[in-house]
# Entry
Amino acid sequence: MIVRSIHEFLAKHAQPSALQIYDEVMQEAAASLESARARAPEQRSRKLQVRKAIARKHAERSERATQALATPRSSSRKSA
# Structure
């Protein structure tokens, strides 16, 4: 009777073994890697869009800076 109670208690409160935890983690890692590979082309195209937008913005700023440097400044001080 006592042995049966101990077995029931252990069955109800059983903790996974280290091997079970390892197997579960490795399966989740494999699934995560597969899903990451599936999303890679989408992320790559998004990354290229962002890079193009940054390059375009940089070119616009550079052009404005070049134009600003090309125009002579009007001095607020009066010539003596």
Summary: Helices lie at 2-12, 18-70. Residues 33-67 form one domain. The CA atoms of residues 32 and 38 lie 10 Å apart.
